[in-house]
Write a structure and sequence with these properties.
- The chain is mostly helical.
- The chain has helices spanning 16-51, 77-87, 100-107, 112-127, 135-143, 152-168, 175-190, 194-210, 216-227, 237-257, 264-284, 293-298, 305-319, 339-347, 353-362, 372-395, and strands spanning 325-326, 337-338.
- Strands 1-2 form a two-stranded antiparallel sheet.
- The longest helix has 36 residues, at 16-51.
- The chain is elongated and about 75 Å long.
- The chain starts with 15 loop residues before the first helix and ends with a helix.
Length: 397
C-alpha cells in the first residue's frame, strides 16, 4: 500500500520553526560582528587621540608627510597637498607670497590637522622672509589661541611658528603683542605639564634674544621663572626623555638670556645654573647637545667674586678635558673645535697671574694632536688670548 501524502515521519515536521531559528542565529551573528567592528574602531580612535595629547611631547619632532586622500571642508585636495608640502619643506614645493591666503585659510580651518600643518607653513615662510611688515600681526592673532591647544601638534607647531615670526620679523614692535607674547610664554613656562613647559622654554629662547632693551623687567621675570623649573627624572625611560628634553630646553633659554641680565643677584643665579650644566658635561666628557661654556665664561666679569672664582675653575677643568670636541658643520668635514678652550679664550682677559699659569698648563702641547690644522682650530684662539693676557700682566710689573 502506498504512503499517503502527509503521513510520513518527515512530512509531519513543520519546517517553519527551523527557518525562524536559523534566521535568528544569523541575525545574532551579524549583530555580534557589528559590535566587534564598532569596538575596534573606538579603540583605534582613542589610540589616535592619545597619541596627540599633550602628554606625548612632540616639540622636537618633524611631521610625517603622508599623501592626502581627502580634502578639508574649506580646502581642496590640491590645496591641502601644497600646504603639507610647504609645511614639511618638500624640495619640489617652494613657498611664495601667493601662498599667504592659503595659509591664513588653513590656520582658521576647524580640522586641527589642517591648522597644525598651517603653523609649520608659517614657520617655513617666516624663515624665508616672505611676510610683509603688517602681516605677522594678523598671523599672531590666529596663532595665539593655538599655543595652549590640547591638540599636541597644534600647540607644538604654533610655538615653532611664533618663534620664527619673533626672530624674523618686527612682530615685537607692537607693545601690545610683546606683552601678550610675554604672558603666553610665562604661562607655558610655569605650567605643571612638562610638555607645556618645553614649549614655553622654546618660546622663551626666541623671546629673550629679541625683547627690546626697555623690557628688562619682563626679561628678568622670565629668567626667574625659568630658573624655578626643576623637572624630576622619573623611572620610566620614555618619561625620562621628555624630562631630559625639558631640562635641556630650559637651560638653553637661560643660556640665551645670560648676556642680557643686568641684576647681579640674578646673574649669580644664572651662572650657578650654567655651572651645574658644565659640571655635568665635564663629568660625562661628552657634548650631548648645546654646550654653555663660552656663555658661562662671559659672565665671570659680572658676577660676585665667589661665583667668578667658581666659573674660572670650571672653565680651566673644561679646557683640560680633551673630550669636549664638537664640529660647527654637519654633513661636511671642518676642523673640530674645543668647547673648553673656546671658553678659555673668552675668559683670558680676566685671569690673575696664578690662574693664567693654570690655564697655560691646561692646554696640551701640539704633539698631543697629530693634525696641526686641527690643533690650531681647537686651541689656537685660546693660546693667542692667553699670550695677550701674559703680555699685559708682564707690562704691569
Amino acid at each position: 500500500m502506498g504512503k499517503q501524502k502527509g503521513t510520513g515521519v518527515y512530512s509531519r515536521i513543520d519546517p517553519r520553526p527551523l527557518f525562524i531559528l536559523m534566521k535568528r542565529s544569523f541575525n545574532l551573528t551579524l549583530a555580534m560582528l557589528l559590535v566587534a567592528i564598532l569596538i575596534a574602531r573606538s579603540w583605534h580612535g582613542q589610540s589616535a587621540v592619545s597619541a596627540g595629547e599633550p602628554g606625548n611631547f612632540a616639540c622636537a619632532q618633524e611631521p610625517v608627510d603622508k599623501p592626502t586622500t581627502e580634502s578639508s571642508g574649506s580646502l581642496s585636495l590640491e590645496s591641502v597637498e601644497r600646504l603639507k608640502g610647504i609645511a614639511t619643506g618638500r624640495s619640489q614645493i617652494e613657498p611664495t607670497r601667493e601662498d599667504l591666503p592659503l595659509v591664513m585659510r588653513a590656520l582658521q580651518d576647524k580640522d586641527p590637522d589642517i591648522s597644525s600643518w598651517a603653523c609649520l607653513a608659517v614657520e617655513k615662510m617666516a624663515l624665508r622672509g616672505l611676510f610683509q611688515p603688517n602681516e605677522p600681526l594678523a598671523l599672531w592673532t590666529e596663532l595665539r589661541p593655538k599655543l595652549r591647544s590640547a591638540h599636541a601638534e597644534t600647540s607644538d607647531w604654533s610655538v615653532r611658528a611664533v618663534g620664527a615670526l619673533v626672530s624674523r620679523s618686527e612682530l615685537l614692535a607692537d607693545p601690545l603683542v610683546e606683552e601678550a607674547l610675554f604672558e603666553e610664554t610665562l604661562w607655558l613656562v610655569r605650567a605643571d605639564d612638562v610638555n607645556q613647559c618645553c614649549r614655553g622654554a622654546m618660546l622663551a629662547t626666541a623671546l629673550v634674544m629679541t625683547l627690546p632693551k626697555e623690557s628688562k623687567d619682563n626679561l628678568e621675570k622670565l629668567v626667574r621663572a625659568l630658573l624655578k623649573v626643576r623637572v624630576p627624572m622619573p623611572a620610566n625611560s620614555e618619561a625620562q626623555d621628555a624630562e631630559a628634553t625639558c631640562n635641556r630646553l630650559v637651560t638653553e633659554a637661560i643660556r640665551a638670556a645670560a648676556g642680557r641680565v643686568e641684576t647681579q643677584a640674578l646673574l649669580d643665579d644664572v651662572a650657578l645654573r650654567l655651572l651645574a650644566q658644565v659640571a655635568t658635561i665635564n663629568q660625562i666628557s661628552t657634548l650631548s647637545g648645546d654646550h654653555v661654556h663660552s656663555e658661562l665664561a662671559a659672565l665671570a666679569g659680572k658676577t660676585s667674586k665667589e661665583v667668578r672664582d667658581r666659573i674660572v675653575q670650571s672653565i680651566l677643568a673644561a679646557a683640560a678635558n680633551s673630550d669636549l670636541l664638537y664640529s660647527r658643520t654637519s654633513g661636511r668635514y671642518t676642523p673640530p673645535k674645543h668647547a673648553g678652550a673656546e671658553a678659555l679664550a673668552v675668559l683670558a682677559s680676566l685671569l690673575t697671574r696664578e690662574e693664567l699659569e693654570q690655564a697655560e698648563a691646561a692646554i696640551p702641547p701640539p704633539a698631543a694632536v697629530t693634525d696641526s690644522e686641527e690643533y690650531e682650530s681647537m686651541y689656537g684662539a685660546a693660546k693667542e688670548a692667553l699670550a695677550v693676557r701674559r703680555a699685559r700682566l708682564d707690562k704691569k710689573k
